[in-house]
Design a protein that fits this description.
By secondary structure, the chain is of the alpha/beta class. The chain has 13 helices and 21 strands. The structure holds adenosine-5'-triphosphate (ATP) and magnesium ion.
C-alpha cells in the first residue's frame, strides 16, 4: 500500500522522514517537509527513454493550433491551443473561470468530446449554469469527481479533445495521505494530468484558486509544471473581465482579452480602449495612458485622488497598481519636483479593473497625482507614458509606435513621451520630456 510507504521530503535539503514535521531537523527550515509518493512508484513513471539526437532532427513545428472559439482568448494563448498544452487559469472566486471554461467546452466540442471535470460544484449546479449560458452540445461531457485516479481513467477511456479540471485544488490522489489542496496533492495532480495530456496530445485547462494575497494557491512548482498560466482579473462587482497570460511556452505574454460578464456568459469586447475610457469625465486627477505589453494596445484611464490626510499616518491605496511603486513615485515627486504629499492621503485607481504592472505607466500616475493635488485637469487631448527613474528622469519604454497609433485612433492629438523615445514620423504631436519637472511644466 502506498499509504504505509509515504515519505515526507524536505524541499530545501532533501531530508526524508516518515512523519510530517513543522521544521526540518536537518537544515532547520520551517514548513519545507512535503509528502511525496513512494519511490517505487516514482520509478515506474520512467517510460521508454528517448535517444539524444541532433536538434534539427526533432520536430520543430506544431501541426495546428486549436481554437478555443474566442478570438481574443486564442490571441492570449499565442494563436490557439497546441496539442498537449496544459493551461492553468487562475482568478478570484466568482470572477467567471467556470463560466468561461464551460463556454470554451461548447465551442471546442467541434473537435470532439470535451471532458469537464468538476471537483467544486455538483453536476446539478453546472447544468443550471450550462442551460443559462446555452451549452447543449452532446460532446460536452460532465464528470463531477475529485479522485485523481478516476479522472485519469476517464481521460484514458473517453479520449477527449480537451480536458478541463475545475479546480486543481479539489483533486486528490490515493497515493498521498495529505488532503486535497495541499502542496503535495496539487503538485501530484498537476503533474499526472499534464503527463497524461502530453502523451495523448490533448490540451487541458486547469482552474487554479488564488489566495487572499492574490497569488495562485499551491506551490510555485505548479506554475513550472504547466505550459501556460492565465490570470483572470477584474472586479467581481463590475461586469468587465480581463484575461492575460503571465507565462506562456507557446506564445508571448503581452496579449490581453477583455470580456463582459452577462447573464448569457462572457462576451468578448472587441474595442477595449473605447470601453475603458468611456466613462472619463475630464476632472482633475485623470490621465489617459496607452497600455501595452504586446501587440495589443489599450487606452486606460489612470485616476488619482489626493486629499488632506485624516489621520497622522497618511494613507496610500491603489487599485490595479502596485502600492510600493506609488510610494516611490511620491518620493520622486517630492525630491525632484517639490510636490509634497506627506500630509495627504493618496489613492490611485486604474479605471475598469485592469491591473498595470509595466513601468511605462509611472509618468501617468505621477501626473495624475499632481493634477489631483492642484485640482487642475489635464488637457483632454493628451496621452502620457514613460518610466520614472529615481532621480526624476523620464526613461524610454517599449512599443512607442503601438501606443501612439492607438491614441491617434481614438482622437488624441498630443502625447507626453520620454525624450529618448526614437520615433520616425507619427501623426500625433509629440511632447518629449526628459524629467518629471519638465513634464509638470508642459502640462500645467
Ligand atoms: N444570471 C447571471 N447573470 C449575470 N451574471 C451572472 C449570473 N449568474 C452568475 N453570474 C456571474 O458569474 C459569476 C460566477 O461565475 P463562475 O462561477 O464562473 O466563477 P468562478 O471563477 O468559477 O468562481 P469560483 O471560484 O467560485 O468557482 C458571478 O460572480 C456573477 O458575476
Ligand atoms: Mg468555478
Amino acid at each position: 500500500m502506498a499509504r504505509r510507504t509515504a515519505k515526507f521530503v524536505c524541499q530545501s535539503c532533501g531530508y526524508r522522514s516518515v512523519k510530517w514535521k513543522g521544521r526540518c531537523p536537518a537544515c532547520g527550515e520551517w514548513n519545507t517537509l512535503v509528502e511525496e509518493p513512494a519511490e517505487e512508484e516514482n520509478l515506474r513513471r520512467i517510460k521508454a527513454p528517448e535517444r539524444p539526437r541532433p536538434i534539427y532532427e526533432w520536430e520543430g513545428e506544431f501541426a495546428e493550433r486549436l481554437t478555443t472559439g474566442f478570438r481574443n482568448l486564442d490571441a492570449v494563448l499565442g494563436g490557439g491551443l497546441v496539442p498537449g498544452q496544459v493551461v492553468l487559469i487562475a482568478g478570484e472566486p466568482g470572477i467567471g473561470k467556470s463560466t468561461l471554461l464551460l463556454q470554451v467546452s461548447e465551442r471546442f466540442s467541434r473537435y470532439g468530446k470535451v471532458l469537464y471535470i468538476s471537483g467544486e460544484e455538483s453536476g446539478n449546479q453546472i447544468a443550471v449554469r450550462a442551460r443559462r449560458i446555452g451549452v447543449f452540445s452532446e460532446n460536452v461531457l460532465l464528470l463531477p469527481e475529485t479522485h485523481l485516479e478516476v479522472i485519469l481513467n476517464a481521460v484514458e477511456e473517453e479520449n477527449p479533445s480537451l480536458v478541463i479540471v475545475d479546480s486543481v485544488q479539489t483533486v486528490y490522489s490515493e497515493r498521498l495521505e495529505s488532503s486535497a489542496g495541499s502542496v503535495a496533492q496539487v503538485r501530484e495532480t498537476a503533474f499526472r494530468i499534464s503527463e497524461a495530456c502530453k502523451v495523448k496530445g490533448t490540451p487541458a485547462f486547469l482552474v487554479g484558486q488564488i489566495t487572499k494575497e492574490g497569488t495562485i494557491a499551491g506551490p510555485k512548482v505548479l506554475e513550472h509544471i504547466v505550459d501556460t498560466v492565465l490570470q483572470f482579473e477584474g472586479e467581481r462587482f463590475n461586469f468587465y473581465r480581463v484575461v492575460k497570460a503571465v507565462k506562456n511556452r507557446f506564445g508571448s505574454t503581452g496579449e490581453v482579452a477583455v470580456f463582459k460578464m452577462t447573464d448569457k456568459g462572457l462576451e468578448e469586447i472587441e474595442e477595449p480602449s473605447a470601453f475603458f475610457i468611456s466613462e472619463r469625465t475630464g476632472s482633475p486627477g485623470s490621465v489617459i495612458f496607452p497600455y501595452t505589453e504586446g501587440s495589443r494596445p489599450i487606452l486606460l484611464e489612470v485616476q488619482a485622488l489626493v486629499l488632506h490626510a485624516l489621520y497622522t499616518t497618511p494613507q496610500r491605496r491603489t487599485q490595479g497598481f502596485d502600492v510600493n511603486r506609488l510610494s516611490l513615485i511620491l518620493a520622486v515627486l517630492e525630491k525632484e519636483a517639490g510636490v509634497f504629499t506627506r500630509d495627504s492621503d493618496v489613492f490611485i485607481n486604474i479605471a475598469g479593473g485592469m491591473s498595470v504592472r509595466e513601468p511605462a505607466v509611472d509618468l501617468a500616475v505621477a501626473l495624475a497625482v499632481v493634477s489631483s493635488k492642484r485640482e487642475e485637469p489635464l488637457p483632454e487631448d493628451i496621452v502620457v507614458f514613460g518610466e520614472l527613474g529615481l532621480s526624476g528622469e523620464v526613461r524610454a519604454v517599449h512599443f512607442g509606435d503601438l501606443r501612439l497609433k492607438e491614441a491617434r485612433r481614438f482622437g488624441f492629438e498630443r502625447a507626453i513621451v520620454p525624450k529618448n523615445l526614437h520615433m520616425e514620423d507619427t501623426d500625433i504631436e509629440l511632447i518629449p520630456v526628459s524629467n518629471i519637472r519638465e513634464a509638470i511644466e508642459v502640462v500645467f
